[in-house]
Structure formats: structure tokens, C-alpha cells
Amino acid sequence: MLTSTLLPAPGPPEGPGFDPLADPARLSALSRTGLMDSPPEGAFDRLTRLAGRVLRAPVALVSLVDDRRQFFKSALGLPEPWASRRQTPLTHSFCRHVVRSNGPLVVPDARLDPLVRENLAIRDLGVIAYLGAPLTTSEGFTLGAFCAIDGRPRAWDDLDLEVVTEMAASTMAEVELRMEVSQRREAESRLADSLRRAEALNLALRARTSELADCNARLELLARSDGLTGLLNIRAMRQELEDRAAFCLSAGLPMSVLMIDVDHFKAFNDAFGHPLGDDVLTTVAGLIRQGIRQEDLAGRYGGEEFIVGLPGCSSTRAEALAERLRASIASHPWPLCPVSASVGVSSASRPSDLPALIRAADEALYRAKRDGRNRVCVAEPLP
Predict the structure, then answer these.
(1) Taking CA atoms, which of 120, 132, 186, 225 is between 20 and 30 Å from 355?
(2) For the segment 303-314, what is each residue's pLDDT rounded down to a tens digit?
(3) Alpha-carbon distance 276 to 255, whole Å?
(4) Cα Rg of the chain (Å, integer)
(5) Residue 149 dihedral angles phi and psi, to the nearest 5°
(6) What is the pTM of this model?
(7) Catalytic residues
(8) Which CATH number fits domain 234-378: 3.90.870.10, 3.40.50.300, 1.20.1440.60, 3.30.70.270?
């Protein structure tokens, strides 16, 4: 009597009640191939055709087995309707025994074999002789079998078994090559996504850095500016005047300073209120900014008093500029009442003592106010 031969091979560890068909790790490995329910492909069909010719077997299959069915990635010689369906339930599967044993299965006559004689493939697919070798991954998971089938009893020999074993190895080489290519493409895709995300983050970081730079610039401007007039505040003005004075001293250039005070400003505030007084100061600041050179400095010294630094400007030129500023303020179309300003001018051919230069301009300013306001007074030039 002819009976089947199961040739077990080393595989993943098994324990009591362990069923390789339902092993989640094996099913995951099978899923990762992407072959279940995929269309026929020439690479696999060539192997089943070659096996059929070499073994003179009417049927050759690449069978993938999950926990519910077997799917034929390649099917040579199957009868209809199975050839079109390309799958059977496990009740019709000899290959499930290959998966369970993780080794070849040799069946000379299935009708006489206790392992498979109740298998419905005998009745429905005409399977009598079966020879299958496991499709095993490099990780040790058996995904199915490469098998040859005959409709008559057959005494398979060692050469036949070697053929299906080699065909199984070739099938798995094709499967794992595809998986490697797929994994590489996925890795490249993930890398490309990571690079795109990194670039997006980099752009966002650049934008954020630019925003922070703008904020810092605005903060720096606010820290250096008078909140009402937008001119330099007294702290920033002193630093800028010191820098310009040092430059003029090293370059052998003169420097002049103007002190400007809005006339009768307290009386204006008392008569019209502080908000309108602020409007006057803002307008005066604008007229000063318009009337000086790009390289000159203008700041609010305090209250209704302003200071202007004129690097490289002699006493004569400074006096002329001061007069133009005084006239522009006096002639401005003020809506409530006339507004004027007094101006003190000081100059130094070698500005080595900035505080003295500022004091001289301040003393000249008070002389202008004492002499009747709305006028320019010039201090004696400093050496």
C-alpha cells in the first residue's frame, strides 16, 4: 500500500496547540509578500511550466496558504472552475500539510493515504499523486508549497523531489527579491517623505527665524525709539552721538549739535489738552526728520525738547540748518494756534568733549528763549 511521506524541516519553534497555519507571524510574512490575490505573472508561470515538462506532471502549482484557503499564484493544468478561481478552501489543500510540517510531502496515491484520503481535492480536482516542497522565507516561515500533481498513482523518486525543491527555492528567490525591491522602494519613499518633512521644517524654521529676526529688529527699534515721536530716545541718542563724535574726531571733521524746544508748550497743553499736545510734538518731530540730512541724528531729549546731531557740519552750516528748521515749524499750518520753537546751536572743530558740546547747545537754547523765543542762538565754537 502506497502512503505519504512527510519530511519535516527545521522551522519556528512550536508549542502545545501551536498551528503554523494560524501563526500570526507567518500570516504577517505572507501578507508582506503582496502575492495573495495578485494576478498571474510570467516569472512564476515559467517555473510551473518547466516543472510540468521536467516531471511530466499534468498539474504544477505555486500555492500560498493562509488560515482559510490556498491561493494559486501560478496554476498549470488545473481543471475548471478552479483554474479561473485560482483558490480553494483548506478542505481541498494538500499544501497545508507542507506548511504544518515545514517540509516536503510525497503522496504516491492519495486515495490510500491516511493523511489525505479524506481531502476533497481527490474528488473535485482529481488529485491522486502529489509532490510538494515548502516555500520557506529566509526567516523560516513556510508560506505555502511548490507542488506537482498527477491524476494517477505515481511513485515519485528522489530526482522528482529534487526538482520541486529547486523550483520552490527559485520561487522564493523571486519572492524575496521582489520583497527586497519593495522594501527598498518603501525605504526610499520614507526617506523622501522624511526629506520633504525636513525641508518643510527647515523652511518653517527659516520663516520662524526670519520672524524672530524681524521681531528682534522691531524690539531693538522700540528699545531705541521714543514711543510718541519715533525719533531716537535719549539713551540711544547719546550712544549714537558718542559714536559720531568719535568718528569725526578720528577723521578730523567738525560736529554740531542743535537743541530745539517748542515755545509755550505748557500753556498749549493747559489750553488744549495733552492729546493735542502730543500731536504737536509728533508734527515737530516729523518736520525735524524731513529737514535734516540722512547722516544726521534726531532724538527726543525730554518733554518738548529735541536734540539733533550734525556730524561733519561746521557752525555756519549748522546755523543755516537750524534756521530752516525753525522757519518750517513756525510756518506750518497749525490748526489751533501758531506754534514756534527756539533753537540753540553749538559746534566743535574737534568734538573731543561731547558733554561740553551738548551743554553749549543747551545754554544757547535758553538764551534764545530768554531773548524772545522763535529764534536761533549760536554758542561760541568749541575748539
Answers:
(1) 225
(2) 999 999 999 999
(3) 35
(4) 49
(5) -130, 145
(6) 0.54
(7) 304
(8) 3.30.70.270
